[in-house]
Specification:
The protein has eight helices and 19 strands. The protein is α+β, with helices and mostly antiparallel strands. It has two domains: 230 residues, Rossmann fold (3-Layer(aba) Sandwich); 110 residues, OB fold (Dihydrolipoamide Acetyltransferase, E2P) (Beta Barrel), CATH 2.40.50.140. The protein has a six-stranded mixed beta sheet with strand order 6-7-8-3-9-10, sandwiched between helices. It has a five-stranded antiparallel beta sheet with strand order 13-12-11-14-19. It has a four-stranded antiparallel beta sheet with strand order 2-1-4-5, covered by helices on one side. The mean pLDDT is 91. One of its GO terms (molecular function) is ATP binding. Keywords: ATP-binding, Cell membrane, Membrane, Nucleotide-binding, Transport. This is ATP-binding cassette domain-containing protein.
Length: 356
C-alpha cells in the first residue's frame, strides 16, 4: 500500500488554469472518491496523478517518493478508464495479461495473477471469450482485472461505471467495495454520481472549479457541508435553503425571516455568534416534517419513489422539498403545515457562504 500526497499542484491546459494550488493527502490503503460536476477538474487531477498530464507546479508523491515528473510506468499505479479500452482481437485472458507479457513477467507468475484476478471478479468462465461476446458489465470487469494483475499499490478509476445501466452499476459498486477489502490497495475514484461517492468512499473530496471544497467522510460531508456549494450539490435534491438572520433572543438562538422562525439554540457554531447576522439556513428534505407546524405551504408536486414520496411545497415562492416515509393522503394544491427539525439544520454565512 502506498499513500498519495499532492502539494500545491497546478495544472494548465491550453493556457487555462484548470487546477491552482491544490493539496490533498490520501492515506495508504484508503478509498478516496473525487466528486464534482463536469469540468470541475477531478479527471484532470486523476490523470496528473497517473502521469498522463504534466503539472505546471507543485509536487506529487506516491509511497513517499517524488513522482511529479516520473513516467506513468514508473509510478506504481494502475488506471481504469471510463471506456473499456480492450483489444478486440484478444480474448479475456490475453487482454488481462497483455501488460505483464510485454514487460517480461514469467509465464507462471502471469498465470497466478490472472487466475487470482479472474476469481475475484468471477471471470473464470469467460477467459477464452473475446470482448465482442461480452456484456458491458463483463467488459468493465475485464478492464478492472487488467489493472488488478499489475498488483499496483495505487489504483485509479476514472468514472468506470458511467457507461453501465443502473442495475449493473449497483452490482459492480458492491464488487469494487469488496475488491478494496481484499486487495487493501490505495484507490482513488472519480465520479459525478453522488450515490457512487457516498457508498464507495471512506473519504470524499468535493470539487468545484479545480478547488477542493470539502474533504471528509461521506457522513460529515452530507450532514455538515462546509459551504453552500456542497450543501446544494450533495443530495438529490440538495438542501432546502432559506435566507434570513440569526441572533440571540429570549435566552436562545433564533433563525428567522419574514415567514419562518426556527430555534437553533442547539446548533454547534464554529465561532461565537455576535449580534444579529445575515445567514442561510439549510435543511435536508428528510428533515422536513409535513402535516403539522406553524409554517404553511401549498403542495405543488408529489413524486412517488416506492416506499417514499418526495413532496414539493410552494412556500411563499420558494420550492421546499420534503421526503415523506408514511403513506398518509396528501394531494396537490392542498395547503399543509410543515416544520423543520432544528437539530438537523446547517447555517451558512450569507457573505462568505461558509458554514457558521
Amino acid at each position: 500500500m502506498s499513500n498519495v500526497a499532492i502539494r500545491d499542484l497546478q495544472i494548465q491546459l491550453g493556457g487555462n488554469k484548470v487546477i491552482e494550488s491544490l493539496s490533498l493527502d490520501v492515506k495508504a490503503g484508503e478509498f478516496v472518491v473525487l466528486l464534482g460536476p463536469s469540468g470541475c477538474g477531478k479527471s484532470t487531477l486523476l490523470h496528473s496523478i497517473a502521469g498522463l498530464i504534466d503539472s505546471a507546479g507543485g509536487q506529487i508523491e506516491i509511497g513517499g517518493k517524488d513522482m511529479t515528473w516520473a513516467d506513468p510506468k514508473d509510478r506504481g499505479i494502475a488506471l481504469v478508464f471510463q471506456s473499456y479500452a480492450l483489444y478486440p482481437t484478444m480474448n479475456v485472458e490475453a487482454n488481462m495479461s497483455f501488460g505483464l507479457r510485454i514487460s517480461g513477467t514469467p509465464k507462471a507468475e502471469i498465470a497466478r495473477r490472472v487466475s487470482r484476478a479472474s476469481e475475484m471478479l468471477q471471470l473464470g468462465p469467460l477467459l477464452k471469450r473475446k470482448p465482442a461476446n461480452l456484456s458491458g458489465g463483463q467488459r468493465q470487469r475485464v478492464a478492472i482485472g487488467r489493472a488488478i494483475v499489475r498488483e499496483a499499490q495505487v489504483m485509479l478509476f476514472d468514472e468506470p461505471l458511467s457507461n453501465l445501466d443502473a442495475k449493473l452499476r449497483t452490482e459492480l459498486r458492491r464488487e469494487l467495495k469488496q475488491l478494496h477489502k481484499q486487495l487493501g490497495a490505495t484507490m482513488i475514484y472519480v465520479t459525478h454520481d453522488q450515490v457512487e461517492a457516498m457508498t464507495l468512499a471512506q473519504r470524499m473530496a468535493v470539487m468545484k472549479g479545480g478547488v477542493v471544497q470539502q474533504f471528509d467522510t461521506p457522513d460529515i460531508v452530507y450532514n455538515e457541508p462546509a459551504n453552500l456549494f456542497v450543501a446544494g450539490f450533495l443530495g438529490s435534491p440538495g438542501m432546502n435553503l432559506f435566507n434570513g438572520t440569526v441572533e440571540r433572543r429570549d435566552g436562545g438562538v433564533i433563525f428567522s425571516n419574514q415567514h419562518l422562525s426556527v430555534d437553533v439554540s442547539g446548533y454547534a457554531f464554529k465561532h461565537a455568534l455576535t449580534g444579529r447576522q445575515a445567514c442561510v439556513l439549510g435543511v435536508r428534505p428528510e428533515d422536513i416534517d409535513i402535516g403539522a407546524g406553524l409554517a404553511c405551504a401549498s403542495v405543488s408536486l408529489i413524486e412517488a419513489m416506492g416506499a417514499q414520496r418526495l413532496v414539493w411545497l410552494d412556500f411563499h415562492g420558494t420550492q421546499v422539498a420534503a421526503l415523506v416515509q408514511d403513506q398518509s393522503r396528501i394531494e396537490t394544491e392542498s395547503v399543509i403545515g410543515f416544520s423543520v427539525r432544528p437539530q438537523r439544520v446547517s447555517l451558512f454565512d450569507s457573505v462568505s457562504e461558509l458554514r457558521m
